[in-house]
Design a protein that fits this description.
Strand content of chain B: over 45%
Number of strands of chain B: 11
Shape of chain A: globular
Helix content of chain B: under 10%
Distance between the termini of chain A: 35 Å
Structural class of chain A: mainly beta
Largest interface: A-B, 27 and 28 residues
Largest sheet of chain A: 7 strands, mixed
Distance between the termini of chain B: 41 Å
Order of helices and strands of chain B: EEEEEEEEEEE
Order of helices and strands of chain A: EEEEEEEEEEE
Structural class of chain B: mainly beta
Oligomer: heterodimer
Number of helices of chain A: 0
Radius of gyration of chain A: 13 Å
Strand content of chain A: over 45%
Radius of gyration of chain B: 14 Å
Number of helices of chain B: 0
Number of strands of chain A: 11
């Protein structure tokens, strides 16, 4: 099946730990995105990548890091520098260009314990 | 800054009734506008996509309208079903979104359909 897969679905992190969220797509999309969603808020962009080995900061990049070594994969690391990491994280992909549809993964819910 | 405003924030209707959700945007320039449905704890799924030259687009019981002059869109749901209970998100595509990226999201309208 073609699609975009996020894992894990639920993730618990102790304070001070780094954790990595996985995002894989087999849609042959060039562009990939990471968003954060908090209750009552719209999706906010963390990082995006339009091509392999290149990525750009979004509005709320502080405390996060990404890599794009392969077209299919765009992992997000939530570092200990992110002071309020508990949220729902969504990964998306699209064909490059603004006139196309973004396809979303099913999300990862991260909770700090 | 590009913005997308949705109303109402939440809405409760009875099964079988119709409803209309609103979206106003200040994104410029503007490529297209999409409506997504997001079930609780899931990723958003696209319902409709319209370019600035389109006025209306339907997808089953969902009909979206767009007025590019007034920068307003609406999503009309006909004969609502319990499975329509979800958040509906308006997303406007901005070619030069900068740190917002090229997809500007509204906060969504949470629709609850009661039996």
């Amino acid at each position: 099946d073609g699609g975009i897969t996020q894992s894990p679905k639920y993730l618990f992190r102790k304070e001070g730990q780094n954790v990595t969220l996985s995002c894989e797509q087999n849609l042959n999309h060039d562009a990939m995105y990471w968003y954060r969603q908090d209750p009552g808020q719209g999706l906010r962009l963390i990082y995006y990548s339009q091509i392999v080995n290149d990525f750009q900061k979004g509005d709320i990049a502080e405390g996060y890091s990404v890599s794009r070594e392969k077209k299919e994969s765009f992992p997000l690391t939530v570092t200990s520098a992110q002071k309020n990491p508990t949220a729902f994280y969504l990964c998306a992909s699209s064909i490059t260009g603004s006139n196309t549809e973004a396809f979303f993964g099913q999300g990862t819910r991260l909770t700090v314990v | 800054k590009n913005q997308v405003e949705q109303s109402p924030q939440s809405l409760i209707i009875l099964e079988g009734k119709n409803c209309t959700l609103q979206c106003n945007y200040t994104v410029s320039p503007f490529s297209n506008l999409r409506w997504y449905k997001q079930d609780t704890g899931r990723g958003p799924v696209s319902l409709t996509i319209m370019t600035f030259s389109e006025n209306t687009k339907s997808n089953g019981r969902y009909t979206a309208t767009l007025d590019a002059d007034t920068k307003q869109s609406s999503l009309h749901i006909t004969a609502s079903q319990l499975s329509d209970s979800a958040s509906y998100i308006c997303v406007v595509s901005a070619p030069y979104g900068g740190s917002q990226g090229n997809l500007i999201f509204g906060k969504g309208t949470k629709l609850s359909v009661k039996p």
